[in-house]
Request: fold
Amino acid sequence: MLRTLAPLALVALVACSHTGPPSAPSPGVVTATLDREFDLAVGGTAEVGDGGLTIAFTTVREDSRCPSDAICVWSGDAAALLSAAVGRASAETLTLHTHLVPRSAPHGGYTIHLISLSPYPDSRDPIEPGEYVARLRVELAPAAPGD
Reply:
């Protein structure tokens, strides 16, 4: 009887340990590296590099991107609101776009780029405000001439 139960126990253990497909990042604190893309969920904060830059993803102000199941004359645009601060300096609100400009913005010696915004709209499945995830990349801003 033990030989019969052992395989069943193994199958049950494997089935319980499977968590399904990877889920979106949860809001919280993400540690990010300069010059590398990272995902930031709405309500989340990223600590970038060693220079004290923090970025918070506040909300998506608008999302007029053409749904994946539609034919549109324009691809549309989404605007992500971010809050960025270096050290103890006051945070600055940045609005970055997926199609229009600006898609990137300078802040405190860095340049913050919005690479993409997910999920992508589908007319049959409205996006809830808390479902958005911004893919960002941060790099050091180029030095000004004469620096």
